[in-house]
Request: fold
Amino acid sequence: MLLKGKYAIITGGSGGIGLATANMYLEEGAAGILLVDLNKENLEEVKQKINNDKVHTFVADVSKADQVKAYTDKAVALFGQIDVVFLNAGTEGVVKSLTEYSEEEFDLVLDVNVKGAWLGMKYAFPYMEKNGGSILITSSVAGVRGTAKMIAYTASKHAVIGAMRVAAKEGAPNNIRVNTIHPGPVENRMMRSLEDQFAPGAGAEVKKGFESMVPLGRYAVNEDIAHMAVFLASDNAKYITGAVHMVDGGFSA
Reply:
C-alpha cells in the first residue's frame, strides 16, 4: 500500500503506460485517480477495463493552457488535493530527416511533449504547495542520446529534463519533488508506430534491431515503467528529486 490515501492525475491516461500505472496505483492504495487524454472513446474504454469507482476521466489537450487548468481544477474538485501528477502524455511525431521535417510537425511534438509538461506543472504547483507531492514526467532514452530522423522527439525528450531540474529546485521549498522517467523501447502503440515508420512493412525487423541493443534482451512491458512511477510517487522516494531515472534494460548504458 505504497500510495495509500494519495490522489493522482495521469495524463496520457488511455495509453499503455497510463493504464498500467493506473492499475498499479490502485493496487498500491491510491484513493483516487483522474485519467486525462485527448480521445474520449479511448478514455471510456480504459475506464471500463479498470472498472473502479476511484477512477475518473477528463478529455483535454495537454498543450492548451485552459484545458490543463480545467483538468487540474477538476482533480481538486473531485479529491480536495493532488498528491501525484504523472505527466505521461506524449507523441512520437514522424520519422524524417531534419531537413524534411515541417514546422507544423515539429511544433506539434514540442507542444505536446514539452509545453504539456510545463503547463501540467504550472497549474499543479499551487495546489501542491501546502502538502507537497510528487510530479513525474515521462521522457525517454531519447532524452539522453540522439536518434537519426527523430529531431523533434529527441529534442523534446531532452528538453523535459531541463524543465524537470528547474521545477525540482522551485518545488523543493514546498516539498514538491519532480523527476523524469526514461523508458527504452516498450511493447506498446508508440513503438509499433516508430517501427513501421523506420521500415514500412518491415517493422518486425526493426524491432529485432532495437532488441539487439538492449542488454536485457527484450522490450519493456508497460508494467516495467509503472513500477518506477509507483516508487517515485511513494514516500519511499521522499528524498529523491531533480533526477533522471532510466527504465531501459541497459539500452543507454
About this structure: Residues 7-184+221-247 form a domain with the Rossmann fold fold (CATH 3.40.50.720). The chain has two domains: 7-184+221-247, 185-219.
